[in-house]
Automatic annotation (TrEMBL):
This is carnitine O-palmitoyltransferase. It is found in: Mitochondrion outer membrane. PROSITE patterns: ACYLTRANSF_C_2. It comes from Neogobius melanostomus (round goby). GO terms for biological process: carnitine metabolic process; fatty acid beta-oxidation; long-chain fatty acid transport. It catalyses: (R)-carnitine + hexadecanoyl-CoA = O-hexadecanoyl-(R)-carnitine + CoA. GO terms for molecular function: carnitine O-palmitoyltransferase activity. Keywords: Acyltransferase, Fatty acid metabolism, Lipid metabolism, Membrane, Mitochondrion, Transferase, Transmembrane, Transmembrane helix, Transport.
C-alpha cells in the first residue's frame, strides 16, 4: 500500500546473493527535512532563551557596557575601583599574553559581571513593581501619588516589549499572616503554592466523565459563515492554528495584559496548547505534552486519519489542506471493526478507560494508532450535521449547536486532547477543550486568532474555496488501523452508554441579548461584570425563591503559574438588594461595589477559596480532620458563572463588520441541581449567554432561567437609568431571540 510505503525509510529483502536494500529516497528526504526543521526550532528556542534570560536588558546592552568600561580605562580612570586589577592578578592565562591583552580581558570580565548585576537589580525592581496591586482599588480619576510614581516606574522598565514566557517568572503569591508554616514552606520551593494541587486534585483525580463535567466549548461567528464548503473552512482554520503555533514557538505572541495597562499576565499555560493529551490512570490522570508534531488526526464517519500538514519542511497552504480534507471526506473506506465508537472511551468514566488503555492499547497496532492520536498537534472532527443559527427556529438551533459542541455524539470527539476542532457540513465550526491543562482565556486567545486569520487574512475565492494552488502529488492522509477485540468492544459500548445518558440529561439555552450592552451600563457608572452578576442573583432568587452559593471565576495570572480564584458573588450586599421590596438604586450600587472589591481581591491574591483548598489538601496529607474545611469545600456551587471576554479586539472590526464576532462559549452545570452560566459582553450593544442545567432536576429549566435573566436585565438597567420597570410580557425570552436574528 502507498500509505505503508510512506511510513518506512527503507525496505529489505533476502536474496540468494544476500540482503538487498531498497532505499526510499522520499522517506529519507522527509527524515532529513524533519531533522532540519527540528534543529531550526532548537536554534530559535536557544535564541529566545538567551533574550529571555537577560531580560529586561538585551544582548546588545552587554556590548555597550563593555565599550563604556574600556573607554573609561583609556581615559586613565578606573570605574571598577581596583577590581579590574584584582581580576588581572588572578587570571589563569599564559605568560605569552601581553599585559595589555590581560587588562582588556579583565575589563571584559568586569563588564560582564557588572552587566549581570544590573540585570539582577532591574529584575528585582520589576518584580517588586509588578507586586503592587493597590492601583486596582483606587477610584477612576483619583490616582494617589504612590500609584503615579508606580506608573512612571513601570513605564520606564517596560519600554522594551515583554518577552512572552518571561512573564511567567515575575511574581509569586503574597501569603497572609494566617497561612500555616507548611504552605509557607511550599512557597519557598514551588513556583505557585496552589496551581499544581489545583490541577491534580480538582481536574486529574476526578473519576467521572470529563465530557460535560469538565470540558468546555467555543462557538463560531454568530451571524455569518465565511464559506459553506466544509473542507475549505477546515483548510483555512487548520492553517491558522499552525500559524499561531509558529508565532508561539518563536515567542512572537504579544503577552496578554490587563486591559488598559502594561501589566502582563503569566503565559505559562500557553506552553501546553498544542500536542498535549490527558492520559487516563486508575487513581489519577496525567497531562502529557510533546515538544513537536507535524500532523493532526482527523475523525470522519467512524474512521481516524493521520494528516501531515508539513511537506518537504514547509507548512501546507490552506488550499492544500482543503484538498487533503476533501480526500478524507471522499474516502469510501469503512471503519475497522470496533473503530466507529472508539472515542466513547474518552467520554465515559475514567477508571474503565484507564484499564482498557492498559489492557488493549499498550502494545502492537493499537498502541501505534493511539500514540498517533495522543501525539497529534490537535484533533479534528468532520461532522456530517449542519449547525448554527438557522431554520424556522433559530433560537432552538442555537441551543442544539451548543449541545453538539459540548458532547457531540459522545464518540466523535477525542475528549482527552487539549482541544478538538469541529467542522460541520455547512461550513460552521467550533471547538471543544479539555480543562486540566489551561483555563478558557488561553484557548480563547488561540480561537480568536484562528477566526480572525481565517476570515480577514486568508479569505476565500469567489467559489468559496481556499486561495492558492494545489500540489496534487501530496501523499494521501493515512487511515489508522485497529485490532479491537470483542472484550474491548464491550467496554466501548459501556462507556458510550454512560456518556449518552449524561449527554441526554443536559438542557441548554443560548441567546444573544442585543437591546443594550456594556456601553449603556458604563454610562450608569456601574461595572458591567457586577451588573451581570446582580442580574443573575435577581433572576435566580425570582425563580428559586432562595439564594445559593455562587461561583464566578477570576483569573490569577498576575502571579507566576496562576490560574483562577473564586469570587463569591452572592454576598450580604447582593442579598439585601434582591430582598428589597422595592428595588433600591442605593442597595444596587452597594452590592455592585462590593462585588468589584471581591473581584479585585481575588485577582490580587486576596481570595479565600484557593487558600482553604490548599489547607484542606495539607490536612489530608497530615491525616488531620478539619470539620470546618470539610464542610466549606463540600458545599455545592448551584450557580457557577464565568465571563468570556474578547482579548484581541484589534483583530476584529466591530464597527464595519459587527457580524464577524463569536457567540462565546459555555460549559456544563457544576451541580446536578444547579446552573452553569457563561456570558460575554461583545462591543457596546451585545451580551451573549450560555445556560446549562440538567433535565433530571425538576427545579431547573435553562429556558425559564434565561427568561428571568432577560427580565432582570431590563429591570436593573431601568433602575439605574431612572426609568420605570417594563410590565412583564408572557414568554418574552424566546421571541426576542428570533427578532434579533
Amino acid at each position: 500500500m502507498a500509505e505503508a510505503h510512506q511510513a518506512v525509510a527503507f525496505q529489505f529483502t533476502v536474496t540468494p546473493e544476500g540482503i538487498d536494500l531498497q532505499l526510499s529516497h522520499q522517506a529519507l528526504s522527509e527524515i532529513y527535512l524533519s531533522g532540519v526543521r527540528s534543529w531550526k526550532k532548537r536554534v530559535i528556542r536557544l535564541k529566545n532563551n538567551v533574550i529571555t534570560g537577560v531580560y529586561p536588558a538585551s544582548p546588545s546592552s552587554w556590548l555597550f557596557v563593555v565599550i563604556a568600561i574600556l573607554a573609561t580605562m583609556y581615559t586613565r580612570s578606573d570605574p571598577s575601583m581596583g577590581l579590574i586589577a584584582k581580576i588581572q592578578e588572578h587570571l589563569p592565562v599564559s605568560q605569552s599574553m601581553s599585559s595589555q591583552c590581560q587588562a582588556v580581558l579583565s575589563a571584559v570580565l568586569f563588564s560582564t559581571m557588572l552587566w549581570l548585576l544590573l540585570i539582577f537589580t532591574m529584575r528585582l525592581c520589576l518584580k517588586q513593581l509588578l507586586s503592587y496591586h493597590r492601583w486596582m482599588f483606587e477610584q477612576h480619576g483619583k490616582m494617589s501619588n504612590t500609584t503615579k510614581v508606580w506608573v512612571v516606574s513601570v513605564n520606564f522598565f517596560t519600554t522594551a516589549r515583554f518577552i512572552l514566557y518571561f512573564t511567567c517568572f515575575l511574581t509569586t503569591f503574597s501569603l497572609g499572616n494566617r497561612l500555616q508554616w507548611y504552605l509557607k514552606l511550599k512557597s519557598l520551593w514551588a513556583a505557585n503554592y496552589v496551581s499544581d494541587w489545583w490541577e491534580e486534585y480538582v481536574y486529574l483525580r476526578g473519576r467521572s466523565p470529563i465530557m460535560v463535567n469538565s470540558n468546555y466549548y467555543g462557538m463560531d461567528f454568530l451571524f455569518v459563515t465565511p464559506t459553506p464548503i466544509q473542507s475549505a473552512r477546515a483548510g483555512n482554520s487548520i492553517h491558522s492554528f499552525f500559524l499561531y503555533r509558529r508565532k508561539l514557538n518563536k515567542e512572537e505572541i504579544k503577552p496578554s495584559r490587563i486591559p488598559g495597562t502594561v501589566i502582563p499576565l503569566c503565559a505559562a499555560q500557553c506552553e501546553r496548547i498544542f500536542h498535549t493529551t490527558r492520559i487516563p490512570g486508575e487513581e489519577t490522570d496525567t497531562v502529557q505534552h510533546w515538544q513537536d508534531s507535524d500532523y493532526i488526526v482527523v475523525y470522519h464517519k467512524g474512521r481516524y486519519f493521520r494528516l501531515r500538514v508539513y511537506q518537504a519542511g514547509r507548512l501546507l497552504s490552506p488550499r492544500e489542506i482543503e484538498f487533503q480534507i476533501q480526500r478524507i471526506l471522499d474516502d469510501p473506506a469503512a471503519p475497522s471493526k470496533g473503530e466507529a465508537h472508539l472515542g466513547a472511551l474518552t467520554a465515559g468514566d475514567r477508571i474503565p478507560w484507564a484499564k482498557a488503555r492498559t489492557k488493549f492499547f499498550s502494545t502492537g497496532l493499537n498502541k501505534r494508532s493511539l500514540d498517533c492520536i495522543e501525539k497529534a498537534a490537535f484533533f479534528v472532527t468532520l461532522d456530517d450535521d449542519e449547525q448554527g443559527m438557522m431554520g424556522d427556529d433559530p433560537a432552538a438551533s442555537l441551543d442544539n449547536y451548543a449541545k453538539n459542541l459540548l458532547h457531540g455524539k459522545c464518540y466523535d470527539r477525542w475528549f482527552d486532547k487539549s482541544f478538538s476542532v469541529v467542522f460541520y457540513k455547512n461550513g460552521k465550526c467550533g471547538i471543544n477543550a479539555e480543562h486540566s491543562w489551561a483555563d478558557a482565556p488561553v484557548l480563547a486567545h488561540v480561537w480568536e486568532y484562528a477566526l480572525a486569520t481565517d476570515s480577514f487574512q486568508l479569505g476565500y475565492n469567489t467559489e468559496g474555496h481556499c486561495k492558492g494552488e494545489v500540489d496534487s502529488s501530496l501523499p494521501k492522509p493515512q487511515k489508522l488501523n485497529w485490532e479491537i477485540t470483542p472484550e474491548c468492544e464491550e467496554q466501548i459500548s459501556q462507556s458510550l452508554d454512560v456518556a449518552q445518558k449524561l449527554a441526554d440529561d443536559i438542557d441548554f439555552h443560548v441567546f444573544s441579548f442585543q437591546e443594550f450592552g456594556k456601553g449603556k451600563v458604563k454610562k450608569c457608572r456601574v461595572s458591567p461584570d457586577a451588573f451581570i452578576q446582580m442580574c443573575l442573583q435577581l433572576a435566580y432568587f425570582r425563580e428559586q425563591n432562595n439564594f445559593c452559593l455562587t461561583y464566578e471565576a477570576s483569573m490569577t495570572r498576575l502571579f507566576r503559574e496562576g490560574r483562577t480564584e473564586t469570587v463569591r458573588s452572592c454576598s450580604n450586599e447582593s442579598s439585601a438588594f434582591v430582598r428589597a421590596p422595592d428595588v433600591c438604586r442605593r442597595l444596587l450600587r452597594a452590592a455592585s461595589e462590593k462585588h468589584q472589591l471581591l473581584y479585585r481581591m481575588a485577582m490580587t491574591g486576596g481570595g479565600i477559596d484557593r487558600h482553604l483548598f490548599c489547607l484542606y489538601v495539607v490536612s489530608k496529607y497530615l491525616g488531620v480532620e478539619s470539620p470546618f474545611l470539610k464542610e466549606v469545600l463540600s458545599e455545592p456551587w448551584r450557580l457557577s458563572t464565568s465571563q468570556t471576554g474578547v482579548q484581541q479586539v484589534e483583530l476584529f472590526d466591530l464597527v464595519n463588520h459587527p457580524e464577524y464576532i463569536s457567540c462565546g462559549g459555555g460549559f456544563g452545570p457544576v451541580a446536578d441541581d444547579g446552573y452553569g452560566v457563561s456570558y460575554s459582553l461583545i462591543g457596546d450593544n451585545m451580551i451573549n449567554f450560555h445556560i446549562s442545567c440538567k433535565h433530571s432536576c425538576p427545579q431547573t429549566d435553562a429556558h425559564k432561567f434565561g427568561s428571568q435573566i432577560k427580565k432582570a436585565l431590563h429591570d436593573i438597567i431601568n433602575l439605574l437609568s431612572g426609568a420605570q420597570p417594563e410590565p412583564k410580557k408572557p414568554e418574552a425570552g424566546r421571541p426576542e431571540v428570533k427578532k434579533d436574528q
